[in-house]
Amino acid sequence: MSKKAIVLQTTLELITTQGINATSLSQIIKESGVANGTVYHHFKNKEEIITELYLMLTQDFGTVVMRNTDQGDYKKQFSTMWMNLFHYFVNNPLAFVFSEQIARSPEIPQSLKDRARKYFSEIELYFRNGIRDKVFKSYNTMVMEELFFGNVVSIVKIHENEKVTLQEKHLQQAIEISWRGFVKE
Amino acid sequence: MSKKAIVLQTTLELITTQGINATSLSQIIKESGVANGTVYHHFKNKEEIITELYLMLTQDFGTVVMRNTDQGDYKKQFSTMWMNLFHYFVNNPLAFVFSEQIARSPEIPQSLKDRARKYFSEIELYFRNGIRDKVFKSYNTMVMEELFFGNVVSIVKIHENEKVTLQEKHLQQAIEISWRGFVKE
Amino acid sequence: MSKKAIVLQTTLELITTQGINATSLSQIIKESGVANGTVYHHFKNKEEIITELYLMLTQDFGTVVMRNTDQGDYKKQFSTMWMNLFHYFVNNPLAFVFSEQIARSPEIPQSLKDRARKYFSEIELYFRNGIRDKVFKSYNTMVMEELFFGNVVSIVKIHENEKVTLQEKHLQQAIEISWRGFVKE
Amino acid sequence: MSKKAIVLQTTLELITTQGINATSLSQIIKESGVANGTVYHHFKNKEEIITELYLMLTQDFGTVVMRNTDQGDYKKQFSTMWMNLFHYFVNNPLAFVFSEQIARSPEIPQSLKDRARKYFSEIELYFRNGIRDKVFKSYNTMVMEELFFGNVVSIVKIHENEKVTLQEKHLQQAIEISWRGFVKE
DNA sequence: AATGAATGAGGCTTCATTCAT
DNA sequence: GATGAATGAAGCCTCATTCAT
């Protein structure tokens, strides 16, 4: 694992725990066991660490969601996408917290969020095609993505916080509800 | 205007513009034209400025909402409360931003939010009585307050952002929709 | 002696010994026995210390040179000015080094030098009047000032470096030579 | 052009623009597009870059000045030397600035200046012979060199700054004046 | 009530240099 | 010959806070 990767990972851990502002560079340096200058060899400044982390994770999301979605009808694909994201979040708690708390906070400037849109192009295409093929209502695609993410997030939260264990059928129900929100008819 | 009031006002302006974290004491001091020590004469530390500001504004909300609500039936009172809050927000943009962005953020600790509950006692009483008198559904009163605030906030946002000017009848509609959400049957 | 004065004095000592660039803030802090923040309470940044020092000393020069010059003819005044500066430099070795090494270096930006011109207004007036009254050749006054300063500086250097002690008559000779450079005929 | 030469050239450009102190190694590295380690492969440390640059340029001066001076009498040789240096400076503005601003500054230690004396041995010999042959007054040869350089520098400055274009006859005049300063009688 | 001098910990960043490849 | 990762000391500056007046 390269020093750069270590810094990114450490930063992810720290800011998901304490927030961006509460996380100082010296803390990142101390925690990652890397030298002062090493951080600045890889990143222009503190902000660039956050930026890179954000883009990295956002790209992850985009890629993960569309894995194995090249077959089946819209419904089947939707289900796959949903489960992809769900499992990703369940298996990567830090990415989940980051997506929930950091990615939406005002610390991430809008310009950066815009730059990251490209990683959602495939997802966007899926929804746009669905609208074109009269499968989905003609919502704004960005809104659809947000709703889709939001649904998964809600279930992940239940999965994490509730004492009751989620069963497979609960997930199927959640997917069903989510799907119904988009389809025509 | 006392020095203390100046500090509070300046702080309000700064944190609604930049957020709590981005606002330093030195900035408050510089902006308010008050001496260093004067701030510490009136406030124990930086946190106490925020605390006092929060309590002040929260008390404002509570008082404002219940103004002139001692007459009429529940519906009439509801309408008055709604309009009270609406006009307060429209006339105090900083209070609006504060209520929206700061008051809900994690920078305000839960303990402080709890302390501020007392200022909502009258509002809470209104809803509790309504439930007792079978006018309202028996929701949790905190939830009811949140919904009530949320409704007003939504309309204020429309008022602020939309190019279309809100007409009196639109407000009446909004109040009607809000009211329907609470009442039995 | 105020902390601010201590910082200025220490800075003067350090930069005349080592140059501006070789003098770090931490050194100034350590040497002056003042706290980090104290420096920044009095000065906006490192540059402002230099600026203030430069203006302070430059004002000194201007004032010192013109002391007791309100009587006598041009020649008598010239002699007084010359001796004033000579004694000032002899009694304030740091000011002398500063004037020689620092004040002319490119570390002092032209803009600052321009700002300091005002402190030489009396000296300039002396020369301008002399020209008007046909006592002096009509040189550029800035050039005249430079020459005047340069002459004194040369003698101070001899005074400092030579093994031979300067006698009163040597000074009178120097003044005489200096004076001849300016006068008509 | 070798990497080493690129580093030297870049350094020359940077320090003539900003001064030695203001020029950091990182800047040289960034600007020259050469790797970090490559610089240290060719130079022991930052100082050595300056040293090498200084010696290189100084050697240039020495060589250039004496080009085509093996024929003619002292006067003819003097004229050739003068024009050699003049054209070199005119065609190598960076070398000119370096010679003027850097080479004389205290950043170049005396020890280095002494080491570079050897490159002036031919020039020195010219003047020493001239003294021996009773052509020149018996000044100190180093002083003579300084004066010679200074004269050329002055004219180059006029050439660069003045709006009036220098004509051949002006150069001849300058050489004449310069020459007269040295010769006996 | 009000002031502003004084503090020192801690923040981010730049720097010259070393080392393994 | 060339590269770039890695280092840590040192630089400048901001911050919240305390204290004497």
Automatic annotation (TrEMBL), chains A, B, C, D:
Is Cytoplasm included in the keywords of this UniProt record?
no
Q: Which residues bind DNA?
A: 24-43
Family annotation (Pfam families): TetR_HI_0893_C, TetR_N
GO MF term list = DNA-binding transcription factor activity; transcription cis-regulatory region binding
Q: Which residues form the HTH tetR-type domain?
A: 1-61
- What superkingdom heads the lineage? Bacteria
Q: Tell me which InterPro entries the record gives.
A: DNA-bd_HTH_TetR-type_CS, Homeodomain-like_sf, HTH-type_TetR-like_transc_reg, HTH_TetR, Tet_transcr_reg_TetR-rel_C_sf, TetR-like_HI_0893_C
Q: Which UniProt keywords apply?
A: DNA-binding
Its protein name is TetR family transcriptional regulator
